[in-house]
């Protein structure tokens, strides 16, 4: 038996996850905030109560549809390097460590930009936000098997690029 929730409960329970998906789909905080706000507004305006067992999938679908309609050809801009550095846990690294970390982030950002959009979305939802395969499948409207394939291809592609970059830097 599905319990019906009030809107404030829905927002409290799902806002962070909906925002993360919106960020992955848009690539920047401002657009993600806009999509997230609009998704919740549409859910509220949709009339009827949302059933607890389907609320996250419903909100994900709204965000996906909004992103698709706003961006005919969605462009995922990678998060600014400063944002990635801020998100990296590190107890006061020294200047050399900071320089090395920035170089690694630059290389990773460059490698991520070579992935196709579907692989990049799946990988970011998994690696950056810790979503499971089934959660990614719901967020992107895919079968779990398809998500596993995208993740495998993305990881294989990234590893090849990073290995190539490492060989370039290692050779004199």
From TrEMBL:
Keywords (A to Z) from UniProt: DNA-binding, Sigma factor, Transcription, Transcription regulation
Annotated Pfam families: Sigma70_r2, Sigma70_r4_2
Keyword DNA damage set for record: no
SUPFAM superfamilies membership: Sigma2 domain of RNA polymerase sigma factors, Sigma3 and sigma4 domains of RNA polymerase sigma factors
Record-annotated RNA polymerase sigma factor 70 region 4 type domain positions: 110-158
A biological-process GO annotation: DNA-templated transcription initiation
UniProt-listed InterPro entries: RNA_pol_sigma-70-like, RNA_pol_sigma-70_dom, RNA_pol_sigma70_r2, RNA_pol_sigma70_r4_t2, RNA_pol_sigma_r2, RNA_pol_sigma_r3/r4-like, WH-like_DNA-bd_sf
Boundaries of every RNA polymerase sigma-70 region domain copy: 10-73
Record-level Gene Ontology MF annotations: DNA binding; sigma factor activity
Signal peptide range in chain numbering: none
Family assignment from sequence similarity: Belongs to the sigma-70 factor family. ECF subfamily.
PANTHER family given in the database record: RNA POLYMERASE ECF-TYPE SIGMA FACTO, RNA POLYMERASE SIGMA FACTOR HI_1459-RELATED
NCBIfam families: sigma70-ECF
Protein name stated in the entry: Sigma-70 family RNA polymerase sigma factor
């Amino acid at each position: 038996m599905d319990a019906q929730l009030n809107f404030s409960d829905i927002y409290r329970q799902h806002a962070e996850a909906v925002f993360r998906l919106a960020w992955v789909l848009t690539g920047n905080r401002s657009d993600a905030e806009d999509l997230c706000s609009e998704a919740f507004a549409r859910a509220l305006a949709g009339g009827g109560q949302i059933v607890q067992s389907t609320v996250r999938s419903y909100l994900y679908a709204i965000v996906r549809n909004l992103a698709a309609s706003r961006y005919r050809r969605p462009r995922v801009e990678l998060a600014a390097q400063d944002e990635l550095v801020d998100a990296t846990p590190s107890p006061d690294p020294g200047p050399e460590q900071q320089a090395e970390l920035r170089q690694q982030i630059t290389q990773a950002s460059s490698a991520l930009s070579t992935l196709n959009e579907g692989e990049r979305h799946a990988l970011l939802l998994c690696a950056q936000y810790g979503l499971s395969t089934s959660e990614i499948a719901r967020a992107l409207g895919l079968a779990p098997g398809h998500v596993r394939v995208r993740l495998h291809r993305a990881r294989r592609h990234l590893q090849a690029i990073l290995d190539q970059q490492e060989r370039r830097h290692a050779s004199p």
